[in-house]
Design brief:
The structure holds 2 protein chains of 2 kinds. By secondary structure, chain A is α/β, with parallel strands linked by helices. Chain A has 17 helices and 13 strands. Classes of the chains: A alpha/beta, B alpha/beta. The A-B interface holds A 15, 17, 19-20, 23, 26-27, 30-32, 34, 39, 42-43, 46-47, 49-52, 55, 154-156, 167, 184, 187-188, 207, 210-211, 215, 381 and B 6, 18-20, 23-24, 26-27, 30-31, 33, 36, 38, 80-81, 84, 87-88, 128, 166-170, 172, 175-176, 178-182, 184.
Chain lengths: 391, 273
């Protein structure tokens, strides 16, 4: 079963290495899990999961493998009997509840518990928790309902209830997040180097030279380290991109922070790039693609943002654009303009805000020209890696 | 290893640790692995190290990371300038290089006779390659000083507590050698206990009022920086020092500046009130 848990974690893309697993086994041998499932939950999470983004995957895997384990434990039945046998525990009950309780045998109560747990499995997505911290059912934990049946052992919530809450779902890496998260992801997009005028004192070299000079001071200067990465951002706006406009705006805000890149330019297009790109989102001022390319260093990093979803003719046929704003000569198809751009830039990526599972048709065609990644934090990170290291 | 019973750290009078956090500290102690702590600013990541060292009677060594910190600084610094100075003015014995080797916090932790707590604070402030440069030393807990041909090896592996604000992604190889805990924001019950520690004489009713206002404030959508535990404690201190009670103020919260640190956030909250 523990091995199953390991593979379940890996299946859910929680990066657990064999070493982590060995460490966990070592910890279990030392008894660090307190011989309880709750202890095991916290221990395994501490040892195996190294990123908040994977807490949710861990919870999901834990639920899959260990759901129902507690039911099998004899300890639970013992606890329940002890609870029923302790008159003190019944003090806070209303007369109706007492009557109900009397009518239930321990076996029936356990059966009821199992049924509810099964039901919970079906419904936990909606957040309607039957067994957990709710406090209205006779089953619960954490002291919210003093008369309730506590599931699991130790203080606080049981591991199962914790895992079932899936509280870390918001922190998943594949969820799109705010400007700051994008900011952090983009920080890796850099190409540090010493260029320009020597303005910075190279302390160590100065000391070395001075020491070699038998103590006569010799000052060595060097240029400061700067990010030499140049970035060109092309954004699809309007139409099918409208639902994502806030995401694109956040990406633009994060990317355009002053001093981030040696050179940063952003242009807009609608659906597909044809003869020109636009300098602002209202499509008034434009720049011919030929001028854009001749004015761009081939080492500039190109980032295209768009859903790449359009009618195939809009991409593949010369003059196929259905959009009035595209002032095209009609001689070159969208795909050829795109190919021209793809061939100019050595490093280019495409960020797509649509759900990855829905990528099809023209998305696949353009994905063949540009490495395509989802517009999520992990997608941006992968894209940045592609742009900096080429992998 | 035998005397190292589990569940050694139980929190202290001045620091309320949640169960999972205590568990994580004890796992780090038992497995002798560095513990990485993450969480919102103001949830007590740095304070934990101080209280672990106090509770377990171990010395604390602090290494506060800045954007310019290099891994080598943590091990030792060879003070060539002092040696150069001495050689020119004939101060001291210049032939003895060991006199100019100054151990950094990590170096001191490894050279210590007893087990110590080493706090590496805000590791993500440094360059992204910084954690990689520490891999070997944290793994084997020993390093060499080529200048004096000496090796420093830990007699007892220190408890290393590393805090991070999630500004940079830490390298996988580094994470693999550590264990990880994310400090969740305290729920109102735990928060009540935490505030009690800092304001033991506060009336229950007032505390409940403060907490209600505080959690309501945290719930305001669109805040750039939500107030955290440390800000709540400061705020209550300000309220008590001034003698202003929450009930008397209609509308806005008093001393909003202790809770919200940016102008935009303050405007936002005022506009809603």
């Amino acid at each position: 079963m523990f091995i199953d848990f390991f593979y379940e974690l890996r299946r859910r893309k929680v990066p657990v290495a064999t070493q982590d697993w060995m460490l966990l086994c070592q910890a279990l041998e030392l008894g660090l899990h307190d011989s309880s499932l709750d202890g095991f939950y916290h221990l395994a999470r501490t040892v195996c999961v190294k990123d908040l983004a994977h807490y949710d995957g861990f919870d999901a895997a834990f639920l899959t493998i260990f759901k129902g384990i507690e039911l099998q434990s004899i300890q639970l039945v013992e606890e329940m009997k002890a609870w029923l046998g302790d008159p003190k525990q019944l003090e806070g009950l209303t007369p109706e509840q007492r009557a109900l309780l009397k009518s239930l045998s321990p076996e029936e109560l356990i059966r009821m518990y199992r049924e509810r747990l099964a039901e919970q499995k079906k419904r936990h997505e909606g957040g309607n928790r039957w067994i957990g911290s709710g406090g209205t059912s006779p089953f619960g934990t954490g002291g919210f309902n003093p008369t309730g049946m506590r599931v699991g052992d130790g203080g606080g919530k049981s591991a199962m209830a914790l895992a079932a809450e899936r509280r870390f779902a918001d922190y998943r890496n594949d969820v799109v997040l705010d400007v700051r998260r994008i900011d952090v992801a983009l920080r890796l997009l850099r190409d540090l180097g010493r260029d320009g005028a020597p303005e910075e004192l190279a302390l160590e070299d100065t000391i070395d030279r001075t020491a070699k000079n038998a103590g006569d001071l010799e000052v060595v200067m060097r240029p400061p380290r700067r990010n030499r990465a140049k970035v060109l951002l092309l954004m699809d706006v309007g139409g099918s991109m409208d639902p994502y406009s806030h995401l694109v705006a956040r990406l633009l805000t994060a990317a355009s922070r002053a001093g981030r890149f040696a050179r940063f330019r952003a242009f807009y297009f609608h659906n597909c790039v044809y003869d020109q790109v636009f300098t602002e989102a209202r499509f008034r001022d434009m720049l011919p693609v030929a001028d854009l390319l001749s004015g761009s260093d081939r080492d500039e990093r190109l980032i295209i943002v768009g859903d790449a979803a359009m009618h195939p003719a809009e991409l593949l046929e010369p003059g196929g654009s259905l959009w009035y704003g595209a002032r095209t000569s009609g001689e070159t198809a969208g795909i050829d303009w795109m190919r021209m751009i793809a061939e100019h830039f050595r490093r280019a990526v495409w960020l797509n805000p649509d759900d990855e599972r829905r990528w099809a048709g023209t998305v696949r065609i353009l994905g063949g020209l540009f490495p395509m990644y989802p517009l999520t934090i992990s997608g941006i990170e992968q894209a940045v890696r592609k742009l900096t290291r080429g992998t | 290893m035998t005397d190292r019973g589990f569940d050694r750290f139980q929190g202290t009078e001045g620091y309320i640790a949640s169960d999972p956090l205590r568990h994580a500290v004890n796992v780090a102690l038992a497995l002798e692995r560095p513990l990485i702590l993450r969480g919102e600013p103001g949830t007590g990541k740095t304070l934990l190290a101080h209280h672990v060292s106090a509770a377990l009677g171990m010395d604390l060594l602090r290494w506060h990371i800045k954007s310019t910190t290099k891994a080598q600084d943590g091990l030792y610094v060879y003070d060539t300038v002092a040696r150069l100075h001495d050689s020119r003015f004939n101060d001291g014995d210049v032939r003895d290089i060991a006199r100019y080797i100054k151990l950094g916090p990590l170096g001191q932790a490894l050279a210590a006779d007893k087990r110590v707590v080493l706090l590496i604070d805000e590791i993500d402030k440094a360059d992204i390659e910084f954690p990689n440069d520490l891999l070997q030393e944290l793994d084997v807990m020993r390093f060499q000083i080529p200048e004096t041909r000496t090796e420093i090896a830990a007699k007892e592996r220190p408890l290393v507590i590393i805090t991070s604000n999630n500004e940079k992604e830490l390298p996988d190889a580094f994470l693999r050698r550590c264990i990880f805990h994310y400090i969740e924001f305290p729920n109102p019950d735990l928060m009540k206990k935490i505030v009690r520690v800092h304001h033991p004489t506060l009336e229950d009713k007032v505390l409940d009022q403060c907490l209600e206002a505080f959690f309501k404030l945290r719930g305001v959508p669109g805040l750039r920086k939500r107030p955290s535990t440390s800000e709540l404690i400061d705020w209550i201190a300000a309220l008590r020092a001034s003698g202003v009670s929450l009930g008397k103020i209609g509308g806005g919260l008093p001393f909003l500046g202790t809770l919200l640190k940016t102008e935009q956030d303050q405007e936002l909250v005022r506009a809603r009130a």
